[in-house]
Every structure is written in C-alpha cells, then in structure tokens.
Amino acid sequence: MRLFPRLRAEAQSDTPGRVATAHGFRSSFPDWVSEHGYARDLAERALAHTVANKVDAAYHRTELLEQRRPLMEAWAKHVCNQ
C-alpha cells in the first residue's frame, strides 16, 4: 500500500494520444535554457543538480541565486504563455 498515491494531472502533450509527464516537463528545461542563451550551469543549479567532478565542486560552491532569478522569471513566462 502506498502512503501517497500517485496523482496524475492528465496534462495535454504535444504528442497525440499521450499526456505530459513531470519528468518530460523537467527535462525540457535544460533545452529551453540553452536555446535562449542562458548558461548551462544556471540550469544545473536551478534543477538542484550536483557538480559531478569533485574538483569543480570544491571550487564552485555558489548557488548563483541572483543570476538564476531572471532565468526562472523568463521560464515562468514561457510556461504560462505570457
């Protein structure tokens, strides 16, 4: 028995006969970021991905919050068709 049942929004997909998924939505974000000229690092931080390379991780500790804010505002406008 599941403590929390899976909730399905049944959101429309661009693919006929299919529904959109959270993973598909999440995976579309990095593509959109690169297509709109934002740095890949911003997308990785926004998705809360860790830096795999230990040396890079040791030197890159910032969350880039101020740089991510305009990115996330633009993403929200895109998603809400504004």
Structure description:
The chain has one domain (22-79). With 82 residues, it is mainly alpha-helical. The N and C termini lie far apart (41 Å). The protein has helices at 22-35, 40-46, 54-59, 65-79. The chain is globular, with a radius of gyration of 16 Å.
Record keyword descriptors for this entry.
82 residues
Number of structural units classed as domains: 1
Report the uncertain regions: none
Q: How many separate helices?
A: 4
Q: Residue-averaged pLDDT, rounded?
A: 77
Reported for the largest beta sheet, the result is: none
Rg for CA atoms: 16 Å
Give the helix proportion (percent range). Answer: 40-55%
Structural class: mainly alpha
In total, the number of strands is: 0
Shape: globular
Succession of helices and strands: HHHH
SS strand fraction:
under 5%
Gap between N and C termini: 41 Å
Short description:
The protein is built from four helices and no strands.
Q: How do the strands and helices of this protein lay out in sequence?
A:
Layout: H1 22-35, H2 40-46, H3 54-59, H4 65-79
Helix pairs in contact: 1-2, 2-4
